[in-house]
Amino acid sequence: MALIRDELMGGIRVILFERERLLDGGEIEQCYREIVAVLDKTQERCVLLHFGRVNFMSSAALSILVRVLKKCKEYKIALKLCNITPILIRYSRLPA
User: Fold this and answer.
1) CA-to-CA distance for 46 and 58, rounded, in angstroms?
2) pLDDT of res. 50
3) Over the Cα atoms of the chain, what is R_g?
4) Cβ distance 58 to 96 under 8 Å?
5) H helices of the chain, where?
6) pTM
C-alpha cells in the first residue's frame, strides 16, 4: 500500500502523505523511496509536501525531510512544505 500519493496542481507537483502517523522505520524508509520515485519522474521545478493528514511524526520520520531536500537540490527542484499543524510540530520535538 502506498504511503503517499502525488498529483499535479497548477504546475506544481504535490505529494500528499496518506498516513496520520509516521512512526515505523520500515514505513519511513518506504515513504522516502516513494517520494524519490516521484522526484525521479517529475518534470516540475517545484514540489510541495502536503502534511494535511499527518498528526504525528517520529524524529526518524522528520529526518526524511532532510534527505528529500538534498535530493531536490540534486535535481534542482524547489521544495516547499504545507499544512504542518502546530500539534505535529510540538509533538515531533518531544524526546522519545
Assistant:
1) 26
2) 96
3) 13
4) yes
5) 25-41, 59-75, 86-92
6) 0.87
